[in-house]
Write a structure and sequence with these properties.
The chain is built from 19 helices and eleven strands. By secondary structure, the protein is an alpha/beta fold. It folds into three domains: 280 residues, 3-Layer(aba) Sandwich (Rossmann fold), CATH 3.40.50; 166 residues, Rossmann fold (3-Layer(aba) Sandwich), CATH 3.40.50.10490; 33 residues. The termini are far apart. The structure holds 6-O-phosphono-beta-D-fructofuranose. The site of 6-O-phosphono-beta-D-fructofuranose (F6P) has 14 residues, from loops. Its EC number is 5.3.1.9. It is found in: Cytoplasm. Catalyzes the reversible isomerization of glucose-6-phosphate to fructose-6-phosphate.
């Protein structure tokens, strides 16, 4: 039986979405004096202002029809219940169990795994590994991007340990850390869901070599495994007390809540990590309970689908006006593009609408002096997100933070209003959409809620597109070919261009 049962209703709802009247943002504000309160959502210590998007009551009605046609409620329930919604891999999707949501057995298992993590952190604090100053975290993709973001965003000033996250197989990345860290005071965390990823295993081996070379007595004893494949870590000689497992049903790009978040929990302390989980849980409750027109992830997904399918936007830009969130766009690139960068639906048919945006971004105010020219006057439509904290965490003249926020707000206002000039080169078309996400201060709870918001928005986009957001077969072919080139560079099956590259560089 087809998994997408209501194709006719879905097509009709999309037609209704496309037939909505097009009004400018200026018109929408003029026509509805309650627009702002209608499109601002405050939840989980975050304030989302969607009013500078082209959503209005007509579009909301059409998109709610689409939600219904896509069986959204059932799909969301299935996600929260821990059903096997990742159909191509026959797995449940249970990262929310780490935040206390889902099947009781999965929540209990997550608690048990968190307790193991906490025990190890307490042992490290108590000196079980001698003096420890540094943690070298080795992983890639979802096993690196989340921890790296958390460390950079939350522990810059206050980290209890010095953590470096190395992902790239390019030896320069590891060597840079070797220069800074004392091998005798370093622990190595090898983070890999599968514990087979080639880059991670090679980096782990080289880190061991580095320790040996510097006379560390038992390098193996300083290695910690963060993995959903504990058997493989055991095989490699890692003691059970230093294996921090997580469930197979947690996707790599959703795994920072699990033991993959170990470096953040170590550097922040357990309480801080707990607050991160609670922030995520607050967003889970909001996503589950709030009506669609007041539901931040759902509204964001409506806007995504509108700009993508109706207005033809190809990308969306994430600009944090906060130096500590400079890694957020990289984290979100994997979350959104690996989840929804698909071309077939749950029944294996080609989808009718463009899939995930290309996600990109940067930090304000830097980006204003580099890429905002295109946003204001270029020919492409790029929906933008501004993210900022109201409270300053620097100790300099308060004018710094005030200037930062002033600029964020000015950019959103300018993109929307535009400005006419008789010289076309100095004219701004305006009517360009943005969403502003504000938090009182950037702390673990707020970051947890923000990340969970993006997770649920990604899920909602996946449901509206009828795709499976939880597999990633698109990355496999390249991996296979890399093995093939490494094992048989002389292979005559490669195309002439690739053969010439191999001949030039890999003889
Ligand atoms: O190649 C893509 C991918 O499978 C990601 O989905 C994943 O986050 C990353 O590789 C790392 O995988 P692992 O955690 O198994 O090392």
């Amino acid at each position: 039986m087809a998994r997408i049962a209501n194709k006719a209703a879905i097509d009709a709802a999309w037609k209704q979405v496309s037939a909505c009247s097009e009004k400018t943002l200026k018109q929408l504000f003029e026509e509805d004096s309650n627009r702002l309160s209608g499109l601002v959502v405050e939840t989980a210590k975050l304030r989302f202002d969607f009013s500078k998007n082209h959503l209005d009551s007509q579009k909301l009605t059409a998109f709610k029809k689409l939600l219904e046609a896509c069986d959204f409620d059932t799909r969301r329930k299935a996600l929260f219940a821990g059903e096997k919604i990742n159909i191509t891999e026959d797995r449940a999707v249970e990262h929310m169990a780490e935040r206390g949501q889902g099947a009781p057995a999965s929540v209990a298992r997550a608690k048990e795994y968190h307790a193991r993590m906490r025990t190890l952190i307490e042992a490290i604090d108590a000196g079980a590994f001698g003096e420890v100053k540094h943690l070298l975290h080795i992983g890639i993709g979802g096993s690196a991007l989340g921890p790296k973001l958390l460390i950079d965003a939350l522990t810059r000033e206050s980290g209890r340990y010095d953590v470096a996250v190395v992902s790239n197989v390019d030896g320069q990345a590891l060597e840079e850390v070797f220069k800074k860290f004392n091998p005798h005071k370093t622990l190595i965390a090898v983070a890999s869901k599968t514990f087979t990823t080639a880059e991670t295993m090679l980096n782990a081996e080289s880190a061991m070599e580095w320790m040996k070379k510097h006379g560390v007595e038992d390098p193996q004893g300083r290695m910690i495994a963060l993995t959903a494949n504990p058997a493989k870590a055991s095989e490699m000689g890692i003691d059970d007390t230093r294996i921090l497992p997580f469930a197979e049903s947690i996707g790599g790009r959703y795994s920072l809540w699990s033991s993959i978040g170990f470096p953040a929990a170590l550097a922040l302390g357990w309480e801080g990590f707990q607050q991160l989980l609670e922030g995520g849980a607050a967003m889970d409750r909001h996503f589950l309970e709030a009506a669609p027109e007041k539901n931040a992830p759902i509204l964001a997904a409506f806007a995504d689908q509108y700009y993508s399918a109706v207005r033809g936007a190809q990308t969306h830009g994430i600009f944090a006006y906060d130096e500590r969130l400079q890694l957020l766009p990289f984290y979100l690139q994997q979350l959104e593009m690996e989840s929804n960068g698909k071309r077939v639906d749950l029944d294996g048919n080609l989808i009718d609408h463009p899939s995930a945006f290309i996600t990109w971004g940067g930090v304000g105010t830097d980006a204003q002096h580099a890429v905002f020219q295109l946003l204001h006057q270029g020919t492409r439509l790029v929906p933008i997100e501004f993210i900022a904290a109201i409270k300053a965490d620097d100790t300099l003249n308060p004018v710094h933070h005030k200037t930062l926020l002033t600029n964020a707000f000015a950019q959103g206002a300018a993109l929307m209003s535009g400005r006419d000039n008789k010289d076309p080169a100095r004219s701004y078309p305006g009517d360009r959409p943005s969403t502003t996400i504000l938090m009182e201060e950037l702390r673990p709870a707020q970051l947890g809620a923000l990340i969970a918001f993006y997770e649920h928005r990604t899920f909602t986009n996946g449901v509206l597109l009828g795709i499976n957001s939880f597999d990633q077969f698109g990355v496999e072919l390249g991996k296979e070919m890399a093995h093939a080139i490494a094992d048989h560079p002389e292979n005559s099956d490669f195309d002439p261009s690739t053969k010439a590259l191999i001949a030039a560089a890999l003889k």
